[in-house]
Give the backbone structure.
Amino acid sequence: MTGSSPGAARPATARDVSLSVVVLIAALACGYGYYRFSRPHHPTLYATPPAAVIRSAAVAPDAAPVARKIPERIPDLALPGLDGASHRLSEWSGHPLLINFWATWCEPCRREIPLLKSIRSEHVAKKLEIVGIAIDYRDLVRKYVADNRMSYPVLLGEHGGLEAAAAFGMDTILPFSVFADAGGRVVALRVGELHRDEAELILDRISKLDSGSLSLQTARDEISAAIASRAALPPASGPGAAQ
């Protein structure tokens, strides 16, 4: 199935933004690489990296001074799917949701896909849905999805992908993932390659949120604190490194 992109910048602090989301900057300082939409031959992509990513409790105070506003709820975007029909994100309302922005040319995006497939099958009882939004050519995406047996819906952002990313407060950077509860409220936004321990942490809090045992603000705060603590650790290396 299909996705969209960009928006305006404003200074923000962890307290003056009502939405306390988790954002990890995909930069060398965090030990993660990041990919810009930088292929000059692609008509919908351009090489303008974001000035910064929205500040939150999970980001060091001087790491991200300016950003667009991340929405409180999942915007009801419409994008074409691989079936040729237009699909709205509201089709998955009532499900905890992981929306993954990616492209076939993006190496960390490709590395995430086996993890996303596993997470979806492991959380089927909790009705988790994963929706990929590919900022790429339709034919390349169709072939990649088939070759890699991607089991979750994929929407096409060949036209409208940049607007879709912008609707989530993001600029031209891949990959990034948005986590929402079953009520469509944005709980966390993860910039850069997603790893299993981070995904499970966020999904655990979303599960508690959906069961009513955790408030939205507490879920966001606990995710922010846990990921900030993880980011402060020295990078893992070798065969035992967490993925």
In short: DSSP finds five helices and eleven strands in the chain. Confidence is low (pLDDT under 50) at residues 1-67, 238-243.
